[in-house]
Amino acid sequence: MAPNQMPPETGHAPAEEELPRPKGILERMHKYLLLLAILAATVTYNAGLSPPGGVWADDADGHLAGDPVLQVRTYPLHACIGYVFIN
């Protein structure tokens, strides 16, 4: 027999005779992980399009239209918190 040939009795068995192997946790949960990833991406995208608190509709009172409302209203609070944590 040639060195690169296998004897017929040790050849690969047909697919229908193979035993199913047990699935790991990731293989069993792949549908739910994909759903969770899609949900996280959707929530992140939506938060970028419509920030919490909304956006300013006009250019009055020193702010520009389209700027986030919370950025202007909570800046003093963020400045105080930043000062406390930095020092």
Describe the structure.
The chain is an all-alpha fold and about 90 residues long. It folds into 2 domains: about 25-50; about 55-85, no CATH class. It is about 45% helix and about 0% strand. The chain is built from 4 helices and no strands. It has helices spanning about 25-30, 30-50, 70-75, 75-85. The termini are far apart.
What topology does this entry show?
Elements: H1 25-28, H2 30-49, H3 69-73, H4 75-86
Number of domains: 2
Q: Which structural class is indicated by helix and strand composition?
A: mainly alpha
General form: elongated
- Give the tally of β-strands: 0
Mean pLDDT: 75
Q: Characterize the biggest β-sheet.
A: none
Q: Report the sheet-strand fraction.
A: under 5%
Oligomer status: single chain
Task: Give descriptors for this structure.
4 helices, 2 domains, mainly alpha, 87 residues, single chain
Briefly say what this structure is:
This protein is 47% helix and 0% strand. It has helices at 25-28, 30-49, 69-73, 75-86.
